[in-house]
């Protein structure tokens, strides 16, 4: 039982780390995410995402996805 709980905790921690600003490059964002803005690079997108989360404009969960229309452009998807 303890091993199952430990394995579950590791899985949840890993999933949280992926969502808390490490900017997953998933092709789909899923329900509850809203397109906030477009940025010239991944670092800029992550910086804006972290700044909004730090100022409580949106939650700590955000995703920077590559924009399919233009190479080098990233979309910031946030959860409110």
From TrEMBL:
Residues 1-28 form the signal peptide. Keywords: Signal. It comes from the Bacteria. The keyword Signal applies. This is Secreted protein. The lineage of its organism: Bacteria, Bacillati, Actinomycetota, Actinomycetes, Kitasatosporales.
